[in-house]
């Protein structure tokens, strides 16, 4: 059923797109969908994209919602990029709020981000994304590396940013009209390494095509991003850093090292050294967890650098990189 509401003159029409793929996230997915239906003011439409899981799609279609929710199956190859591209085609709103299936949004999230887009120079906006730990937060986990969990990290400040974080981001439809969709060569899948950077690549591509536009971070509202116990481990932390390095290597070949790594240079020269100093200062104040955080900062940087080096070496040996951006997004009924 098409749940799109007729536009009000002078008002940006809005769509919420939630991408999901696993029955294992059923409980938190329901919370995410419930939060989406309770936005104030309400979105003009809500679309849930199911990534190649017919049983989950059937289960969702049997569910009753407080407001109309459209369930659509991913028509593109499996992965988050393909699911989002399906969501773009299946929705009509001038502004699209993308939410992860494990991100529970504040009631004013959509309104807060849409206000940013009332400035025509703003192409997209991202909210604060807060970690919601299933278990106690590890004492060693540094705020500077919350990006490994898809959350807002220390060092990210309100205002213009190079790229958005995908768990809770709002983008103008016109961006996709001008530049195409998310790149399926970078998007994460359920089975592969947790590669990413599809949001970064899109934002870089968009600002090249629309040089007077910008993306912004607005932390006054946000989402709680569920962090399961298996992601609060050293193994996942290092694995995710390694995968980020591989992704950045691919991105640097696609977009050029200058644009692909501009934010990372500031992060490495300012944010990480400040984090190390805080860790050592905590040790002097009698807090041994400060040393663990300092070790995690160094280990995370090392794993990311190793992944980046391997990615660039592989590319140099093969002398090619395959990328499949969705340039033309067909309408999904």
From TrEMBL:
It comes from the Bacteria. GO terms for molecular function: glycosyltransferase activity. Residues 16-177 form the Glycosyltransferase 2-like domain. The keyword Transmembrane applies. Keywords: Glycosyltransferase, Membrane, Transferase, Transmembrane, Transmembrane helix. Pfam families: Glycos_transf_2. InterPro entries: Glyco_trans_2-like (IPR001173), Nucleotide-diphossugar_trans (IPR029044). SUPFAM superfamilies: Nucleotide-diphospho-sugar transferases (SSF53448). The keyword Membrane applies. The chain crosses the membrane at residues 290-310. PANTHER family: GALACTOFURANOSYLTRANSFERASE GLFT2, RHAMNOSYLTRANSFERASE WBBL. Belongs to the glycosyltransferase 2 family. This is Glycosyltransferase family 2 protein. It comes from Rhizobium laguerreae.
């Amino acid at each position: 059923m098409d749940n799109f509401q007729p536009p009000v003159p002078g008002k940006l029409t809005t769509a919420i797109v939630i991408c999901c793929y696993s029955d294992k996230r059923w409980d938190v997915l329901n919370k995410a969908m419930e939060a989406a239906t309770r936005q104030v003011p309400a979105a003009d439409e809500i679309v849930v994209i199911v990534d190649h899981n017919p049983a989950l799609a059937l289960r969702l279609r049997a569910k009753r919602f407080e407001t109309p929710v459209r369930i659509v199956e991913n028509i593109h190859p499996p992965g988050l990029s393909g699911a989002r591209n399906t969501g773009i085609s299946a929705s009509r709103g001038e502004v699209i709020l993308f939410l992860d299936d494990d991100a529970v949004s504040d009631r004013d999230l959509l309104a807060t981000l849409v206000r940013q887009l009332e400035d025509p120079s703003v192409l997209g906006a991202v909210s604060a994304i807060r970690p919601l730990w299933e278990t106690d937060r590890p004492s060693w986990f540094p705020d500077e590396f919350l990006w490994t969990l898809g959350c807002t990290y220390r060092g990210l400040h309100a205002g213009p940013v190079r790229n958005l974080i995908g768990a809770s981001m709002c983008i103008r439809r016109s961006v996709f009209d001008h530049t195409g969709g998310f790149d399926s060569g970078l998007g994460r899948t359920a089975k592969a390494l947790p590669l990413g950077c599809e949001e970064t690549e899109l934002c870089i591509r968009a600002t090249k095509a629309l040089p007077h536009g910008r993306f912004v971070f607005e932390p006054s509202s946000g989402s709680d991003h569920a962090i399961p116990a298996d992601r609060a481990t050293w193994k996942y932390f290092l694995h995710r850093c390694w995968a980020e390095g591989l992704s950045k290597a691919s991105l640097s070949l696609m977009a050029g090292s200058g644009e692909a790594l501009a934010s990372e240079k500031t992060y490495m020269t300012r944010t990480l050294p400040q984090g190390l100093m805080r860790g050592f200062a905590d040790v002097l104040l009698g807090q041994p967890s400060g040393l663990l955080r300092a070790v995690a900062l160094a280990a995370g940087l090392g794993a990311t650098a190793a992944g980046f080096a391997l990615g660039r070496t592989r590319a140099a040996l093969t002398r090619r990189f395959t990328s499949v951006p969705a340039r033309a997004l067909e309408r999904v009924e």
